[in-house]
Design goal:
mainly alpha, transmembrane transporter activity, elongated, five-stranded antiparallel sheet, Growth Hormone, Chain: A, about 575 residues
Length: about 575
């Protein structure tokens, strides 16, 4: 009995010892398995490079997918074996805490807009994180991957083909960029509007200036000469000023300079002081004209249309200005017209600072996503690169003849009609009619330029303009001359936008601002040189010489245009 009793008494203690031994064995196996897994993960981290691919971000900012390549995979067998060995936790262990899960929002996206899976119809994978373990709904294996900051996911987009990264742009950001691009373009149109305003002012006021100072045709034409000095000086200095100070500061400097110039012209001082003022005006106009053309020509898209609207704003300014200047030419305080010009340029200066903040062109364009594809290029030795391109000089010569002819018609036609067609002070409205046609031609004839080709269109416009100008020459009718001059403006209008658009096709894009500064500067010099030559001819042969001179200049434009290259002649 005693032995049987001892056997029964020993049974509970033996069972407890056996259970304890089994638990210790399970715990030891658990620790060994955990050590093996930690060693595997550490080995993977040392030997492999983890490159997280950020998710596609839609217009609403939702995350479409997340791809984690090269992750260490625990197979089903290994997970099952571990779960069977460790199903008996220690009695004194705390209750298990469920790990916190981070759920990424998932949207249905069929196709990737950048990668190789575009339009593939593959359903995106549902992914969640639990510490360092990634659970996927499309596979049964459990993946272990080193953790990384979740903030990286929505901020970087990796192209699978090029391995290049770019900021993800939402629909709201695109809308903001589009609005800023429009504001920038509208401001540049206002700057060119003021350019036309200046050029349209001189014609109606020219007879008044001549009578006020008691000058002849040759002497009063000196204002055009000094205007040309400012244009040429700006054309040469533009590249240096742009490299040194940048787009925004140079534009602001040109506008402020014109405010000072018009302030000098407001009180009718000595004629030499007026010549100095016109020199400052020419310098400021040339700087702004060059940068406006260079900025628009280096846009990412719709360059011909933008150039057309840009220079249509010039015609609008040249249309409105003579209407006002004609009224002032009848008053004793005729120079008060320059006070209006000074106020408009003061407004222009404020707008330039508010919008551009003195920044460089690349910085402004990068902010609004308007950089051209080949914007980044070598920026050294610009003067040498520009002046060694033959096409630049041919384009500049055409610009000189064209702008000179345009300003000569708008400026001297008023004097011609007053003396040869018995017109009165209201003849200044003929200048407005010419610039109105100029503006309409740049807007209404864009479709014809695209239909027949810009090169053919310019030949056609020049031939028709010559025929109309001959009628002004030989038909002694005030009404016919006024109508003909307006249609000449309509035909001349598209020529300058065609010239600038063709410039973007045959010249290196990284030199566009410098080249256009040179071309526009020489062109604006033509707006002074040809009117001055007209004054010399008028003082020698009379104002009748105006029409033969204009016809000869239009014929010269046709010849020069024939020598301009059709395609790009230099490497880009």
């Amino acid at each position: 009995m005693s032995s049987h009793t001892l056997e029964l008494a020993a049974t509970p203690s033996l069972r407890t010892a056996a259970s304890t031994s089994k638990t210790s064995l399970d715990n030891a196996i658990d620790e060994r398995e955990e050590d093996e897994e930690v060693a595997d993960v550490a080995s993977y981290v040392r030997t492999s490079s983890l490159r997280p691919v950020a998710p596609d971000v839609t217009g609403t900012g939702s995350v479409a997918s997340l791809k984690l390549p090269h992750t260490h995979v625990l197979t089903r067998d290994r997970v099952r074996r571990r779960s069977e060995l460790a199903r008996h936790p220690p009695l004194d262990s705390p209750p298990a805490v469920e790990p916190e899960a981070i759920e990424l929002p998932v949207i249905k996206e069929y196709g990737h807009p950048y990668g190789k899976g575009a339009s593939s119809g593959v359903r995106p994978t549902d992914i969640s994180f639990q510490n360092d373990v990634v659970f996927s709904s499309q596979r049964d294996d459990v993946e272990i991957a080193p953790s990384f900051p979740s903030s990286l996911a929505p901020s970087v987009l990796i192209d699978e083909d090029t391995d290049s990264t770019a900021p993800a742009i939402t629909a709201a950001q695109k809308a903001v960029q589009k609005r800023k691009r429009m504001i920038n373009f509208m401001l540049l149109c206002f700057v060119i509007f003021m350019n036309g305003w200046n050029d349209g002012t001189t014609g109606p006021l020219l007879p008044r200036i001549q009578s006020y100072y008691g000058l002849g045709f040759a002497s009063v034409s000196l204002i055009f000469v000094f205007n040309a000095v400012g244009y040429v000086a700006a054309a040469v200095a533009n590249v240096y000023l742009t490299d040194r100070f940048g787009f925004g500061k140079v534009m602001l400097f040109g506008s402020v300079l014109q405010v000072a110039a018009y302030a000098m012209l407001f009180p009718p001082g000595p004629f030499p002081l007026m010549c100095v003022g016109f020199t400052m005006i020419g310098f400021g106009l040339a700087l702004q004209n060059a940068h406006c053309n260079g900025y628009v020509a280096s846009s990412k898209e719709n360059v011909p249309t933008k150039i057309g609207y840009l220079h249509a704003s010039y015609g609008c300014g040249a249309l409105i200005s003579p209407l006002i200047a004609t009224q002032f030419s009848k008053q004793s305080h005729w120079s008060y017209h320059y006070l209006i010009s000074a106020g408009l340029y003061a407004l222009n200066s404020v707008l330039l600072w508010v919008v551009f903040r003195g920044r460089r062109q690349d910085e402004i364009k990068r902010e609004v996503d308007d950089l051209s594809p080949d914007q980044d290029a070598i920026q050294t030795n610009k003067y040498k690169q520009i002046f060694t391109i033959r096409a630049v000089h041919v384009l500049a010569l055409f610009s000189l003849i064209y702008v000179g002819t345009e300003v000569t018609i708008g400026g001297w036609s008023v004097t011609y009609v007053q003396e040869k067609r018995n017109g009165n002070s209201n003849a200044g409205y003929i200048s407005s009619g010419f610039f109105a046609g100029l503006m309409l031609g740049r807007l209404l004839l864009m479709w014809l330029n695209k239909k027949i080709g810009e090169r053919r269109a310019l030949f056609l416009y020049a031939l028709l303009a010559i025929q109309l100008e001959v009628t002004v020459w030989v038909v002694p009718s005030l009404i016919e001359n006024a109508v003909a001059v307006a249609f000449v403006g309509l035909l001349l209008g598209p020529m300058y936008p065609i010239l600038m658009n063709h410039t973007t096709k045959i010249l290196p894009r990284w030199l566009l601002t410098g080249c256009m500064g040179y071309i526009a500067g020489i062109g604006q010099a033509g707006s002074a040189v040809l009117p001055f030559l007209t004054g010399l001819l008028a003082s020698r042969f009379g104002i009748t010489s105006l029409q033969p001179f204009i016809v000869s200049m239009m014929s010269t434009m046709i010849v020069i245009w024939a020598f301009i290259p059709r395609a790009r002649m230099v490497p880009v």
